[in-house]
Write a structure and sequence with these properties.
heterodimer, A: alpha/beta, TIM Barrel, 8-stranded parallel beta sheet, globular, B: alpha/beta, 8-stranded parallel β-barrel, two-stranded antiparallel ribbon, 53% helix, 10% strand
């Protein structure tokens, strides 16, 4: 089974996770820019983080043969902090980097006017830079947040085929299915979505425009739940080809729209900027 | 508006025409310049009408545009190359061939048919030659106009009409239906003005463009990069003329390696076109450097990326603060380009603090000239420690002093104590300094 995890926050994971993921069949991933648990207080804090997403993390992933790409944005939660919003002016520089394959995570957290403004502005950035957009749907008041997100997408003029609404569940998937947008599902150990619930959704809604991710981060999460979902699909009677479509070909198709996916990991270097992940070296 | 690149089938002389069209289409070309020849749609074949219909279908299926070229070497005369021409006694055979080519162009719905003058035979005076040419061209151009086919006349080095000025003279004689086929390489070989300027002059009259590299004074069609033409400004000038026809690679002596040459050529042209557009964008909006610099590598390819970035940086006037911002937000390849193109001491210091050999090497190039000696010595010592060759250190012979010798000697003692060796070039240097 080859796996492309279209949403995982590797900055928060250990090198051991990369090793386990590679062993489980993960060959590619996308790491969306998000908040770090601890609030940021200035734009420089973002840009150092973005630099890691295009620098150190792809290097770390490459040591295990995993192709690392990222998405760049001001996340909805921190869009509310005026000290952080200045980073919007710096985004165009990062949205032209080679391994940036979408604008994201954008969308809503608490559905404030500030979030409205930043969400709409970032969808325009996606259009200007020829990139897809990764839209985070809120944890609270999710159905309303999802509907409102679809409205903003519609108003923006972006092709819905270039947009994924993520962290969907049973109450929200139906809202997105008819919109032309892609549907993302984050499989978590206890919350959001489980492998078996995911299989039921795939049965009901089909495989088209479906993305399954682990969204693993600094919280309780598991980078191997993509694999578990694939196993659950097989156990439920889906074919190997169905699993390959959901766990590999769909994310390749979605992020491939950026024209920047580079899935050849042949030329891994031993060091990044002179530093390795090995202990006892430089 | 992006240019439509094509490839000349005379560069696929060892392929069947259908196979050549397959390869050219698969590579991503928008069209072909089809040279009618004994093995490629022979206008004298008894079944030429069927061949035309079949070729039109092949082109349509592959979504390829087409222009018809008439430069076959031995199609009319198996013994004399390109003969007969408008300037020979039996010029009617050339005219007959060109009319057949025009009929074929009509059948293929070609965008143009292309032809040239021929070399003036020794026994024909210049005055008579021009008269013969004008008469022959008038007949051909009139025939083409009746069929709605654009007639592109091509200046060829060594022929009676070999420059744009000659072409303008012929147009005076023949009339405004005589359009222009321009070979970009020829402009470098024999035009008095630079290539981009030629393109601007030619622009309003163009119906067909051929492209290849060339050297001054030598009419030899070369692969891109093997000649002297700086293509980015040429392609930008061409796009700015509003020309929408094919720009077809003309490499008739490269058939032996056609698929590889055609692949390399398209990669080169796309990269050159992007760079030309980017330079144009910077001329209008210098701030665009912030997004063009990171995009360069995927646009021009890994091998050409550094040169392209240095060129982009050289095209704008950067304040020290602006250069420092590009360095700050650049990845390490972008940082390296900034160090090469617009170095300043603070950026050089930052690069020397890193452990990235690419940055340290760039910092010790000409960028290090303004560094105080003490910092420069530390940089050189670090580069030896990292295993970089000293040949990359700018001005080493002049700047290396006894203090650097002392530092290198100390490093050697440390290395020897640990059972390790010094690189040979560092040993040579320290022995010279002692």
């Amino acid at each position: 089974m080859r796996i492309f995890d279209p949403h995982i926050h590797m900055t928060s994971r250990t090198t051991d996770d990369y090793e386990r993921m590679a062993a489980a069949g993960v060959r590619a991933l996308v790491e969306p820019a998000f908040w770090l648990g601890q609030p940021r207080t200035n734009p420089g804090s973002f840009t150092d983080y973005f630099d890691a997403l295009i620098g150190w993390e792809p290097f770390r992933a490459s040591q295990y043969g995993i192709a690392h790409h990222c998405t760049i944005a001001l996340n909805p939660k921190e869009a509310n902090d005026p000290r952080c919003r200045e980073v919007l002016a710096l985004l165009p520089r990062y949205l032209e980097k080679d391994r940036v394959v979408a604008v994201g995570e954008t969308g809503y957290d608490s559905m404030t006017p500030e979030e409205d403004e930043v969400f709409a502005a970032q969808l325009q950035l996606a259009r200007a830079h020829g990139l897809p957009a990764l839209v985070h749907t809120p944890h609270r008041d999710k159905v309303v947040g999802t509907r409102r997100s679809l409205d903003v997408v519609k108003e923006s003029g972006i092709d819905p085929g270039l947009v994924v609404l993520d962290h969907l569940n049973e109450p929200t998937v139906g809202e997105v299915a008819g919109s032309g947008c892609w549907m993302g599902f984050s499989i978590y150990p206890d919350t959001k979505m489980s492998p078996d619930r995911m299989v039921a959704i795939l049965r009901e809604y089909g495989l088209e425009r479906m993305l399954v991710n682990s969204a693993a981060d600094w919280g309780k999460s598991d980078p191997l739940l993509t694999l578990r979902t694939g196993e659950a699909m097989l156990a439920a009677g889906f074919s190997d080809d169905d699993v390959d479509r959901v766990l590999w070909r769909n994310p390749v198709e979605f992020y491939g729209q950026s024209g920047r996916l580079d899935l050849d990991e042949a030329d891994t270097e031993a060091t990044f900027a002179g530093n390795s992940i090995l202990r006892g070296g430089s | 508006m992006s240019l439509r690149f094509g490839y000349g089938t005379n560069g696929f002389a060892n392929h069947r025409l259908a196979d050549a069209l397959d390869v050219i289409a698969e590579l991503g070309y928008a069209g072909v310049a089809l040279t009618l020849d004994h093995a490629h749609l022979d206008p004298y074949a008894p079944d030429v009408k069927d061949q035309v219909a079949r070729t039109a279908r092949l082109l349509a299926e592959r979504e390829l545009g087409v222009v018809v070229e008439t430069g076959a070497r031995y199609l009319l005369d198996p013994r004399r190359k390109h003969a007969p021409t408008f300037l020979h006694d039996d010029a009617h055979r050339r005219v007959d061939f060109l009319k057949r080519a025009i009929d074929i162009a009509e059948g293929l719905n070609a965008e143009a048919v292309s032809f040239w003058a021929g070399v003036r035979p020794a026994h024909v005076s210049a005055e008579v030659a021009w008269q013969l040419l004008a008469e022959g061209c008038a007949e051909v151009v009139g025939y083409a106009a009746e069929r709605g086919v654009a007639a592109g006349f091509e200046p060829e080095p060594g022929m009676l009409v070999e420059t744009l000025a000659d072409w303008a003279r012929l147009r005076e004689l023949v009339g405004a239906d005589l359009k222009l086929t321009l070979d970009i390489g020829h402009c470098r070989a024999n035009e008095p003005t630079d290539v981009a300027e030629c393109v601007r002059i030619a622009g309003p009259h163009l119906v067909n463009v051929q492209i290849d590299d060339m050297r001054r004074g030598v009419h030899e069609h070369l692969e891109f990069g093997a000649g002297e033409i700086d293509f980015p400004p040429v392609l930008r000038a061409l796009a700015e003329t509003g020309y929408r026809g094919l720009v077809a690679v003309e490499l008739p002596r490269h058939s032996h390696a056609a698929p590889d040459v055609a692949a390399r050529s398209l990669t080169f042209l796309r990269a050159a076109q992007w760079l030309g557009e980017a330079l144009g964008q910077l001329a209008r909006d210098p701030a665009a450097i912030a997004t063009l610099l990171p995009a360069a590598r995927r646009r021009v390819g890994r091998a050409a990326a550094e040169d392209a970035r240095v060129r982009l940086l050289g095209a704008v006037e950067l304040t020290p603060d602006a250069a420092a911002e590009l360095y700050r937000y650049g990845d390490n390849d972008e940082k390296r380009a900034v160090l090469l193109a617009c170095p300043q001491p603070d950026l050089v210091r930052d690069a020397l603090r890193s452990n990235d050999t690419r940055l340290v090497a760039a910092a010790l190039g000409p960028a290090a000239r303004d560094l105080p000696d003490a910092e420069w010595r530390q940089g050189v010592l670090k580069s030896v420690f990292m295993g970089l060759p000293l040949s990359g250190v700018d001005g080493l012979a002049l700047r290396a002093d006894a203090e650097l010798g002392r530092m290198l000697a100390a490093l050697r003692r440390e290395r020897e104590a640990a059972g390790r060796t010094m690189p040979d070039d560092a040993v040579d240097l320290l022995e010279r300094l002692h």
